[in-house]
Amino acid sequence: MINVAVLGYGTIGSGAVEVIETNQAVLQKRTRHAVNVKYVLDLREFPGTSVEKKVIHDFAIIENDRDVQVVIETMGGLEPAFTFAKKALKAGKAYVTSNKELVAKHGAELIALAKENNTNFLFEASVGGGIPIIRPINECLTGDIILEISGILNGTTNYILSKMTYDGWTFEQALKDAQDKGYAERNPEADVEGHDPCRKIAILASLAVGQQVDFEDIYTEGITKITAEDIRYADALGCKIKLLGTYKMVDGEHFAMVAPKLVPNTRPLSGVSDAFNSISVVGNMLGESMFYGAGAGKLPTASAVIGDVVQAINSMNQNTGIIWNPEKLVLSSTDNFAQKVFIRMKDSVDKAKVAAAFGDVEEVKASGVEGEYAFVTGILKEKELKEKTKEFEEILGYIRLA
Ligand code: HSE
After folding, report:
1. Is the CB of 184 under 6 A from ligand 1?
2. Cβ(169) to ligand 1 under 6 A?
3. pTM of the entire structure?
4. How far is 245 from 279, CA to CA, in rounded Å?
5. What is the pLDDT of residue 336?
6. Which ligand 1 atom is at minimum distance from the Cα of 127?
7. What is the pLDDT of residue 244?
8. Cβ atoms of 363 and 374 closer than 8 Å
9. Is the pLDDT of residue 111 over 90?
10. Average pLDDT score over residue span 225-247
11. Which residues contact 211 (CB under 8 A, 6 or more apart)?
12. If DSSP states are collapsed to H, E and C, what string results for the chain?
């Protein structure tokens, strides 16, 4: 029998226990062991549940119990998760986590610690919920140089944008519903301001390059400025607004960014709605490969956690060798990122001044939006975008085209 301990019995932790209980027979077949939840560490009690008698409040019990081989951490946040991860790995236990803050900040260090202790630090659930993306990058796309990773990496914001687009909901109404459905972070600012997808693209970029990409270095914009008018303009342009996390390698330089983008309806990412995520990976030999699935929520995320538990059991006393060196990768400035940009200004703006600043632009009209001058620029560098938009006090907003 393999004993596991679950740290944090919230949405994902209780989901992980549910997957173990529901799929016990298949887990036993795949690992050749019965998988038993021995402890649940939480500040709370859970009377009347299947884990009622397993709840403990002291991590030392888990650390010192030689019969616990795998620790599952679904608490989120840096501490005490980081301390628990180090202690568990030093005690030779495999550590499986859904905690993207922990992975983005300390992934390289914890992978190295797992290696030193001949065990594993696994984190499939930290990016893309139930979508397999970490293992494909680490174990399948290994014949390629990865040139680009781009995707919808946050279920909450995709849910909000989808509800605003298809059902005419307000931002607040959709966020509340995403929280009720268990998609949103405890502090939903992490979702709507883009911090969550920023950590996720940092993790994916680190794995693609095999070096530390600091999430603090990634230019990040969320969706809080997106309005019902923007949604109407997107429709007029034949696009959907999506919050995209992007990593690109161009001529040996590395770029990363998180921002809302106008994605043409002809591209598969535009059709990814609700809490679904989708990630496109471009390799120098592969071309493009797309990954799609449930990006948030209790059971999809728990499914990824338990997939890692199976790998941990099948790789007991044998490190799987994930390559993520602590040496920091210096990202190039986004100033040289270039794309077309959709810009909205008050109708009172001097059109000749717009033409002088942005050159030939294509005017866009949206039904039901009055009193504005909206247009799409030619290809514009980020640096120019910043400088030129500052010249206009009539500016109402802008969104980059994907
Ligand atoms: N809050 C996250 C999201 C959960 O909405 O995608 C999954 O990481």
Report:
1. yes
2. no
3. 0.97
4. 9
5. 87
6. 8
7. 98
8. yes
9. yes
10. 97
11. 324, 325, 327, 328, 329
12. CEEEEEECCCHHHHHHHHHHHHCHHHHHHHHCCCEEEEEEECCCCCCCCCCHHHEECCHHHHHHCCCEEEEEECCCCCCCHHHHHHHHHHCCCEEEECCHHHHHHHHHHHHHHHHHCCCCEECHHHCCCCCCCHHHHHHHHHHCCEEEEEEECCHHHHHHHHHHHHCCCCHHHHHHHHHHCCCCCCCCHHHHCCHHHHHHHHHHHHHHHCEECCHHHCEECCCCCCCHHHHHHHHHCCEEEEEEEEEEEECCEEEEEEEEEEEECCCHHHHCCCCEEEEEEEECCCEEEEEEEECCCHHHHHHHHHHHHHHHHHCCCCCCCCCCEEEECCCCCHHHCEECEEEEEECCCCHHHHHHHHCCCEEECCCCCCCEEEEECCCEEHHHHHHHHHCCCCEEEEEEEC
- Supply 227's token pair: 């309005």
Q: How far is the CA of 178 from the centre of ligand 1 (A)?
A: 10
Q: Is 185 in the pocket of ligand 1 (CB under 6 A)?
A: yes
Mutate to test the pocket of ligand 1, among 75, 163, 191 (most ligand atoms within 8 A of CB): 191
pLDDT reported for residue 355: 97
Which residues belong to the active site?
A: 200
| 223 pocket-lining for ligand 1 (C-beta < 6 Å) | no
Among 154, 160, 187, 215, residue to substitute to test ligand 1 (most atoms within 8 Å of Cβ): 154
Tokens coding 243: 């919050």
Query: What pLDDT is recorded for position 206?
Result: 98
The pLDDT of residue 71: 99
**pLDDT tens for each residue of 73-87:** 999 999 999 999 999
196 Cβ closer than 6 Å to some ligand 1 atom: yes
pLDDT tens, 336-369?
Answer: 889 999 999 999 999 999 999 999 999 999 999 9
